[in-house]
Amino acid sequence: MKHKAHFIKVLLSNKGIIVKIDCRLRDSVCDPLEVIGKSWFDTFIDTRDKETVLKVFHELFDNKTEEWKTFGNDIKCPNGGHRRIDFTNEIILIHGQKYMSSYGIEHMDNY
What we know:
By secondary structure, the chain is of the alpha+beta class.
């Protein structure tokens, strides 16, 4: 019997600010009220990965590539742990504004 995947879904502004979030990662509690309005990159991305993840974000947001529509990276969880997440990214329009919608499944749930 296949179990339900543990996931994180986030909507980011063009500046990488968290607009919406639904975090259902294993052993991790994330209160949306504590992270909405904050930078995704400062809140969830480790400093050693920040440059790479920012590059991916900007290339997707600026429509320079589709290579990163799926991308796996480590995130920092609110409880201090880390998770490897396989993300599917999409640029969407809401009221004429571009946002990045990212849906990530814990890497171990993909196997």
